[in-house]
Amino acid sequence: MSSRRSRQSTSSSRITDDQIIELVSKLQQLLPEIRDRRSNKASANKVLQETCNYIRSLHREVDDLSERLSQLLSTIDADSPEAGIIRSLIM
C-alpha cells in the first residue's frame, strides 16, 4: 500500500505539458531579449537558455552595484545619514 501511495502522490504532483507551455510563455514575456523580438515563437530550450543568461546578467549587475556602493561608502563619513542609507542598501 505504501508504494501505491507514493505512485499516487507522484502522479498528482506531475506537471502537465500544458502547464510547461504556459510557464515557458510567462518566462518569455519576462525576458527582454526574447520579448522585444518580432516573432513570438521561441523554443522552450531558447527561453530557458535566455532565462539563465538573464539571471547571470542580473547577478553581475547586482555585484557591480554592490561594489560601487561599497566604494562610495568608503569615501564618506561612516556616521553620516548617507552612510546609513548606503549600508541599508548593501545589507
UniProtKB/TrEMBL annotation:
GO CC terms in record: nucleus
Transmembrane segments: none
Major subcellular site: nucleus
GO molecular function, one term: protein dimerization activity
Keyword annotations from UniProtKB, A to Z: Growth regulation, Nucleus, Transcription, Transcription regulation
Classification via InterPro entries: bHLH_dom, HLH_DNA-bd_sf, PRE
Ranges for domain BHLH: 4-58
Domain of life: Eukaryota
UniProt cross-references to Pfam families, sorted A to Z: bHLH_ILI (PF23174)
Protein name (record): Transcription factor PRE5-like
